[in-house]
Structures are given as structure tokens and as C-alpha cells.
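User: Quick one: structure for sequence A, then sequence B.

Assistant: Sequence A:
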Amino acid sequence: MRVTMKMFYQRFLSSLNRNMGGVLKDHEQIASGKRINRPSDDPVAESRVLSYSRDVSRIEEYKRSIDTATSYLTAIDSALQEATDIVVRARELAMQGASDTVDAEGRKILAAEVEKLIEGAADLAGTKVGDRYVFSGFSSRSAPLDPETGEVVTDGGVVRIRISERIDVEVNVPAGEIFSLSRNFPSDPPEGVLPSYNWDGGGTIPIPDADPVSALYTDPGGFTADTDTFSPSGGTLTVRSSPDDPAPAVVAIPAGATLADVRDALNSTGKVRAHIVDFSDGGTPDLRLVVSSTTVGNSGRIEIDVSSSDPAGTGLQLLTRQSTGSGNLNLAEQVKNYNYVTDPANPGYYGFNNGALNGENLLRALSFLKESLQSDDRGRISKAIDYLSRVQEKIARVQAKVGANLSIVEREKEVLEGREFDLKTFISQDRDADIASVVAEMQQRQTALEGLRTVSSRLFTLSLFDFLR
């Protein structure tokens, strides 16, 4: 092959351009710190980098959601802990108030402190993160409680935040789960949210003095109206408020006495309180007699002897009772539709002595204690201890759920941070330049360029005459 000067020039220019381009690329990589500065540098690697970067962006969004969820859950957890502290203090005051060493004036002083606890609990219900209330459901920009009545005025919506592709967590607790309740119908009396002592709803609640501790009740007798015949044969009832009652009351029941007649006869003894209560769920009435002590909490000590020709298990025989537990009357702490009403349509639902509400809502339990202390009612003060214990257990369950959600959030954050680190490592491996290698490569290119310039400067000074010599 014939070698000409033109070939020398072409090879020189090609080598010069290649090395100069390499040096320029090396300079660019050193300046930017990146191996890929444009897609054409490595299309396959750039495609991977773009995919990794999208994943990193999603992770960063989830991490922001995690930070939001953490702030909400932490605020709720702190509020619930403070609510627990309030319950603990209220129980201490209740135990003091139930003691016979405290007089009526002392109980009023305790009631004043309970009033402050109620205010503190209401403040906790208004806990906010930024401008949002954490106990207000979906209506997070509105305060959850009516400051006048203590009623929950926001919805019970549960807010969830997605913290990863597969996990979302609840980040709020509706106020109705812990603090108070909402009226079921606008026409319901607002006083029923936190009722006063033995409140009867202006006459709409039939049992204002229900014993919240316990009561005796009869077995089903098929009675659907208070005018139904209760005792075909009649007889006598001997009623004692306790086994050691020195003056039992004896009352005669005429033959054909109705359910209402027997109730009135029992009440006339002054030893017990008797009410007619519908045990049904709204269908066919199931009327029964409920008997309680005149002093709260002593229903289990009541004794009733029956002398009647009514067949066993019917009529007056339904009222037999000994303090040992024998007899036909049943003793229970929660007596349906008497001191434990779950049906909002029942007139007794908002009653002061309704354990279904008193043991479920913090403000309601505290209000029950305050009213009982102010009224010097030791029996109901003792019952308030039970209500507060139930509320404390409920708070603990909710707090455990919040804690579990916090653990999920923290664990998912660790997972995402680990994944983010891996993705950024992959991006770095594909995109970032190995500066030491690039510098070494650039030095090699510069050496080659220097040699190329030296050789070419000598070669290009030659002429045809130099070759002919």
C-alpha cells in the first residue's frame, strides 16, 4: 500500500480529534462528577437511571406522607396519654369521695377539681397538628366539641394516609370514640349529652332514678302492657331491704292485680324501688318488673318472700328472692333498657344513669362523677369508679392501636430508606464518574496528545527533497 502525506494528515487529524474529544469528555466528567451527562453517553444506563430516579421520587413522596402520619399519630398518642392521666386522677378523687371520711362539703370540693378535669379533657379533644384537629374526622378544620354542651359536632370519619405502595394507616381518632357523643336526632335534647344529676329529660325519660350499680328483674312473663294481669290469685309479699332488716314490709296483692298494681305495691313499702321496663328491641313489648334498692348499690341484699297460689314460675312467684341468690328474681349489673340502654330511640338512652354511655365516653364519665359528688351520692360515686375504669380501658385500646400504627409507620420508613439507599447506589454506579480513573485516563490521553504533537511537528516539517536525499 502506498503511504502518502495525505494519509499522514488524515491519521493525525483523526487521532488528534479522538484524543481531544476524550480529554474534553474527561474534563466534563470531572467537572460534573457524572459519567453520563447526556443520554447519548450511555443510552442503556441512562434508561436504568431514569427508572431508578422515578422510584426515588415516589419514595420521597411516601417519606413526606410518613412524616405527616408520624406527626398526627404522635400528637394523638400524647393526647391519649394525658387523657389517661386525667382518668387516673379522677379515679383517685372518686375513691376519696366514696370514703365515709369525706363529708358533703368535702365532696363538693372534689367536684370542683373534677370540673377542671372536664375542662382539661375538652381541651385535649381540640388537639391540633398545624391547623387541623386530630379528633375531628374528615372535618379536620373544625373543633370536634360544642364548647357549651360538650357534644361531638364533627363527623366520625377515619382519615388514612398511604405510606407505601401497599400500606395505608389511620392517622386520626374521631372524638366520638373517646371523648363524648353526638345526638342521634336534632330534636334530641342537648342536655342529654352531659346530663345533670338524675336528669329525666323533662319528663321524657321514665326511669330517672335507675340504680346504675345493679338491679333485680323478673323472667319473661309475656306481658305487653302494664294493664296485663300479673297475679291471677293474689297473695302477700314480705319485703326486706336486707337480710337483717328489723322491720320488713308486708303488702297484700289482690287477685287479678295488674303489672302496674304490683309495681305500685312494691313502691309503697318504701323498702325498694320498682319500675316496669320493656326488655324488647322495639318489636313486641316484653314488659318486666325491675326492682332495686332505695340506696344505690344494695339491690343484691333485697329479700322478698311470696305467699300466693300462683303456679311456680308465674305471677307473684316471679318475685321470690333471697340475698343468697336463690329465688326467681335475677340480679345483674347491666339491666337492659333500665340502666344499660343501647337503643337511641329508647327514651332512657340519654338518661343520667345509662351505663352504656357513661362507661364509653370520657366527658360523660367525668360529668357523672362531678354530679354525684355535688349531690353527695356515695353509691353513684362508687359506680363512677367503674365507669372511669371502663373508659381507661377503652383509651388504652385506642392508644394501643395508635401505637401499632406508629410502629408500622416507623418500620415502613426504615424499609423505604433502605430501598432509597439501594436505588441511589444503583444510580451512582450507572451515572457517577470514577474520578480517579477518569483523571488517570485523561493523563494518558494528554500524554498521547503530547506525543502526537511531537511526532507530527517533526514529520510535517519534512518535504519531498528530504525524502530524496
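Sequence B:
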Amino acid sequence: MISSTNLSLVEFPNLKSLKNIWKHPLIHESQKLNIKKYCNACIDGKVNVEYFMKYEYGRLQLKDATVFSSVAQWNAVRSTLFSDTEYDIDIVGCHQNILLGICKGVVVCNNLEYYCNNRGLIIDSIHIADIAITKFNELNQDNKTKKDFVKSLFTIIMYGGNIATWEKEFGITNDDYKLTPFVNDFIDEILMLADVVINLPQYKPIKTQVFKKEKTKRIKQIDYENANKKDKRKKDAVFDVDKFHVKSCKTLSIILQDIERLIILDAFAFLQILHKVTITSYNYDGFQVLKSTFDTDLIPLLNKEIAKKWKYIEFIVKPFSPQLDMTLIPEPIPVIDVNEFNLIESYEYKKSYIERFIVHCQTPSMYVVLNADGDVINKTTSTKLLESYNHFKYNDEDGKEKSFMGRWVGDPNKHSLSKYEYNPPPVKTPSYNFNAWNGWAIDHIEYKKADTTKIYNHIRFMAGLSNTEEVYEYLLNWFAWCVQFPALKTMVCLIFYGKQRSGKSCIAENLLSVIMGKRKLMVTGSVDKIFGKHSEVGDKHLVVLNEANGKDTKNIHEVIKDAISRETVITDPKGIEAFESTDYVNYIMTTNNISAVDVPSDDSRFMPIAVNNCLIGNIDYFKELRADMDDIDVMGSFYDDLMKRDLTGWNACTYRPMTDLKSDMVELSISPYQEFINWLYIDLSCEFNDNNNIISYTGSDLYYMFKRFWGECGRFNQPSTQTKFGIELKRLDGVECKKIQGVMKYKITRIEKD
């Protein structure tokens, strides 16, 4: 239900994550209770949330604050619960652009307009020390970036705060950052604009209400202070209405929030009524929608509709924050049958029983907990082990009941192995070391022959429309290599490019998970979970990076390339000493961003495949496919096929088919500076020919030509300053920089290619 003063929505959180998310170690203790309440509020997979107007103007508020809806959740929690099934729709620079719409043509607002049109450049121009960002994130268990820091500065300014307010919020000093003169100019202009806007006739009712509200609040505060003052001899404080005033920016923020609400409600009406979109969450300057009811092509239509009434407002699909790694939630150490344990009388026999499930490793020092099948389900410390099994007792020689784990942990004669290893065949592990490899999950299950047609058909869809048959065979060989030779990496990362809901992640997440076992896979949307400090890929055989966005992957491109082919990996689990082990991980990426990674022409590590998108929205197809993937007989039969596949003489690097997608990605990976040089060779061919294939230009002339080239390519955001441009240019083959008669000149030599 939508009205200007009330709103009723239904949220659909991920039930799998919802069950235990409140236990996640990265969630602050102060929020755990609220998240647990939210979990309890979920009935039949739904959370009903109601919003209302607490005051006459401003934003909608939660009717029941204990519900702790999407709008109140930490970004990482919100992402974990909703990013798989929902889109996050957001207004770009919401309050700044609303203010621009009010002021443009009424008063000079050059700084505000420059900020709205050049926010990226402004963010780039401000320096924030990396160590300050890291320190803040460690203290607050957050994942803020430089962009977040700078955006918050300008938001604080909009609400009447200053640089000191910003420093306090982020725990930084003036040694941690370097601002540009624009910031102070922006502050001065915002204070001026606030005075102008709040005195416009149309906003007088809001100004009046804010004054009354703040006046009432101040009177109550004075009454409280008088009632609780320690020195009763002092005169009571008296409210002086003539001296009381409300900061202009305080009133301005309410005005902007009120307009923000009206814009969002207009968007709701357009999407819900005209396009039958299911809106699930109200997030102040944005909202969430069910992916299954929303086509991203609606965004331009929405912006066109909103522009009829509200200037400078642009909605975008905003990427969710990285999800929480749910594997970090401590799995409950299996309750070893305490009744069976209690039936054993002596300490020595109890010890033999426990050592079937718990193994002590000396390097690194830790306790490895196994299930009945011998799979590693937890690595823990002695302290946590004692806490988990404090109810396990034994009777000493005098018949006194004592802690079994207390004695066993300190027992010098307990069964202890030298080193923790993870070695699949044919790698051998000495008997004095512990080998965590326990075979593929499917090896421990009985199954019979079954029809695998749907599995093969889906792999063919994944092979796409370019060189399909060759890619199809390549994929089958790649999968077969992973299961036949677990000790040999493919050295090639598959990249499945396609629209969301095209089924590009099914094979990795579902099929291979059943064959290998969930503990041998890591499926995540966060690069930090794979390549961060506490990444634990040492016991994995397949890592799937879902919906690689390009922003994160390009920043660590070299790290990803190294991981694909590296031989060893450092595992650094929290609470346990870091250790080195052999790296057996193969990688798969899924993405809808063609620029997710750079693929140079001489690349040997990536296999990009554009999947067939014809299955999007085919609910019946995916229901049937999932049923087969849940059928152990089908999975077992497909596994047998992979194990029988002849891979003699085949390797993943040499036999990669060329695809149209790879050609496109190679083209896109060329740097803008190299593109510019290539363009010069064509555009200035006569100058090269007349001067022995060499031309010489000043840096400023070249930069001007570069901007011209960039514009002719249909690109408008300049990728660099002139200084950076010069540095990048010098790195290219055929470019030489020399100072001639006090002027820096760039000599460019045409390189003839075969």
C-alpha cells in the first residue's frame, strides 16, 4: 500500500542466510539482538514492514523500530540477505541534486552545480591516507572506501556539519587527508543556499514546524537539566525564545528529506501501478525491488517519468556491498554422542573415542574436528575446544568428576600429528602428518545409472553462440580435468558472461558442489573473501567469484592472474598461526560486465565465454534442471562420464577456443593511452611519413589531442590529469620524453608491426 503518509511493504530475505546471520563474527554485538529479532519476525519467508510519517514533513519512519528492516541494516547484512534476489535502486547524489533543482535559476550555485556534475573528479582530487581507511574499517568492522569517506564529508556539510564533524565521525586528523580549496568554497555556498531556501515561501510551513519541534525539544531538555541539577542553590535555566534559533542547514535537511520522500513515492507509483514491479524495501533515497519482476531497461523510463516533475534526479541500479562470508560463522562443533561417551568408563578409553573425531596438529598449532565420514568441519583452538566440550567429564582415581577436555588438551601422550596438510592423489602424505583430503563427496555415496541429458543440454547453453561445439567440448574437458586430476590445476579461469538469471552459475554452484562436496568449494561475490588477508582457500578445489563487477577485479588484476597459476598459498585463519600449503584451486568467474577483467592479446589464463541468454525467465526449465542437480543418481552418472573422459595430451591453456567474447575483451583491455598512440599513427600518418616515422610534441599539445581523441570516441569523462597522462605515455613502447630548450617534449616513433 502506498500513500503520502503511510507505506506497507513485504521483504523477502534469503532464508538460508537469515537462519544464522546474527551469529556472524563481523556483526557488532550491539546489532546482533536486532538482527535476531528481524529473523524472528520472518514468517513464511516474509517480513511485513510498515512506515509512517512521524512528523508532518520529512522522511517516512519505521512504525515498529524492533523489526529492524532493510533500511536499518548494516550494508553487508543487507547485501547478504537481499542481493541474490533483489536490485538496489538509488538516486545519484540525492540531496545535492534536489538542492540544485531548487536553486538553479533562483540564486548562484556554481559550486553545488560543479559538485553534482563532477563528483568523480572531486573525489579523485581529495587525498585520504590508506592507513586511515584501514584503521577505521578494522575498528568498525566495516568496508568503507575512499569514495565513502569523501561522499560523507559533503553529506555532513549539507546537514550543517563541518570538517571537524567529519574528522570526529571517521576518527581521523588533518594529517590523514588533504582537501582542495573547493571544499571550503562548497561549505560557504551551502550555508548561503540554506539561508535562501528556507526562506522561500513554499517551504515556510516546514521552517515553522522544524522551529516548533526544536523549541519543544529544547524546553524538555532544560526541564530535565533543572530537575536533575546537582547544585540546587543555582537558579533554574530559563528558555529564552528570543535567543533560540535553529541552524539553517537543519531546516534545509528536512526540506530535502521531504522532497526525497515525494520523489520516491512517485517512483513507486510509476513502477508498481504501470509496470507491476514488486517493491520490497524503502531505503530513504532509494528502494529495493524483486529481480524477478524488474527489468533494468525500466531505469531510463523511470528517469524520463521523474524528470517531468523533478529536475536533475537520476535513478541507477546500485551494486550491493560485498556479502558477508557465511563460512566464517563458526559451525557448531558436532556433539559427539555424550551418552556413548559417558558409557566409557576410563579416561584412556574415553581418550581413544574422542581421538576418532578430534586431531591435534602441531604445525600450525590447532585442533581439527572431523565428522563421522572423516571430513574436516572445523579448525579451532584449545580455548574454544574447552568451551565447546566443557560438559564432557571423567572420574579420576578418587572418583572425583573432572573436565575431560581440560586433561586431554594438556595430555602429553594424546595422539598428535606433526603437520596439517591437504594433499589429493597422487600426492603422498607421511603418516606422521595429517591429510585433510578425504576424496570427493560423491565417492562416499551410492548411486545408480541415470539420464544426464538435461545436464549436458545446459552446458551447451553455457557454451554460448560463438564456436559453440568447440567451447562445449572444452568445458566438459575442463570439468573432467578438475575431478580426474585434483592435484593438477587447470591454470585457466573460466569467465561466464551473461545477463542475470541466465543460469551461468548453476554448474559451479550446484552440480560441481554435489560432486566435489560443499567444503571443497567457495562461492562468493566478494574478492576480499578470496584474496583478503584471512582468505581460507587452502582446502578448496574450486572458487567461484559471482557477478564480478570490474571495479574490484580490475584493482587486483595481477593478484587474480597469480592465483590462477600459483603453486602455493598462505592460509591465515583467525586465531591460528598462518601456514603455507600447496594451492590446488581452480577458478570460475561469472559476470554481466564485459570489462570485468583485462584480457590482453597474449593472455594464457582466461577463457571468456558468452553464455546463451535465451533461458532467462524460463522458470519451468530451471525447476527441472535443479531437480536433476538434486538427484544423486544423475550427479553420479555425470561424474562417471567425467572420470571416463579421455584427456590424453589435452591441457586447458593450449586448447582454448577463440570466442567472439575474448576478442571483444582483448580490444577493451587496450589502455586509453595505447589507443591514443594507435590513433596518432592513423590520424597523423603524413607527419610520420615526412619525418622518418618520428614526430615530436609538447606535453600540453599531446594532452589536448588526447582529449580530442577521447571525445571523438564518444567518451566524455577524462580518464586522467595531464600529469598522469604524461607518466602513462612514457611507459608505452615508442614514446620517449626529453627536455629540449627547457620544454618537455615527447618523441613518438612509429613501430612497424609484422
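The chain has four domains: 6-95+252-326, 330-438, 453-666, 670-749. The longest helix spans residues 248-275.

User: Thanks, that's what I needed.
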